[in-house]
Every structure is written in C-alpha cells, then in structure tokens.
Request: fold
Amino acid sequence: MKEEGYDISIFYGDVSDFESCGSMIEKITAEIGPIEIIVNNAGITRDGGFRKMTYENWRAVISTNLDSVFNCTRHVINSMIDNGWGRVINISSVNGQRGQFGQANYSAAKAGVHGFTKTLAMEVANKGVTVNTISPGYIGTDMVMAVKEEIRNQIIAQIPVGRLGGTDEVAHLVSFLASDNASFITGANLSINGGQHVY
Reply:
C-alpha cells in the first residue's frame, strides 16, 4: 500500500495477547527487518465509578492499555539492544498523571505505562535505546470525538489554550523522540495537553 510516497505495510495482531504480538513481530521482522522504533499507542475506555466497575471492564482496559506495552516491547527490546539503537515511545495520558473521575482502570493503566517507561529506560540507557512517555491531553481522536458534544465542550472549557489538540501535534512529538536529536532524552514523560495539567 502506498500513501504520499511512502510504502505502508499493515500487520495484524492482538496487542493484549503476548503470543499474538510475538507472531506479528516475527512476520514484520521477516518481511521488513528488525524493528528499530516502536510506538505503544493502544487504548480503550470502559468508564464508570469504581463502586460499580466490573472486573471485566477493569481487565479489558488494563490488558489493552498496559499489558500491550509489555507484550509488544518485550518482543523487540533484545533486537534493539543487539543492534545498539532503538526507540520505545509509550503513549500515556493526562489522566494517568492527574486521575479522572470514573476512570480508575484507565488512569491506573496509563500511570503504569510511565512506571514501565522509567524502569526500562534505566535498564537500556547504555545500550543506545531510549524509552520515553508522551502524555497527551484531550486530542481530536475518534475516541474523544465520540464523547457527547456538550461534554466535549465542557472539557474544552477546561483547556487553557481553548481547543482540543491535533493528532499531527502528537505525531510531531513522536517523530522528534524517534530521531537522533532526542538521544539524550530517556525516561521522560512529555506532556502535550494545552496547559490543562501542569506540574
């Protein structure tokens, strides 16, 4: 498949399943070559107050949002170390930094993503591999745009810059962290939330 002059190959796997990730990454490596950059960006929500949260909704979010980071990264990290270069970029969330009513599962998973980032960054820092987290605020993704308009407007009213973020803005930050220019940045959590949460 070609898009804007780039060859794009699509491979399928269930990121919540360790073996499925392994099979997917084996296929990628066989057809394209070793993975040098991985962006862990899987995310779902199953919101609800904790007193009524089901175990199924807890596990679904933890499995997709946090287990996936382990599942995919574990299958590529040794190759990165062997090659002496790699970039692991994990997408967390502003709600993993500050918490959010009705999102005990989501906030726990996204906070866990950065805990994972910090430790792995320490373990591979002298191997030419960097590991960083990006914590977006409310970005104009399908997931956010599916929120009822009146709720979305209430969210926007709480963002100091007065709008949702753009997916292209997050992509530029990912691109920077993937570059050689970011080789001295590791174990960091970079916020991109329009001033909604500063610390």
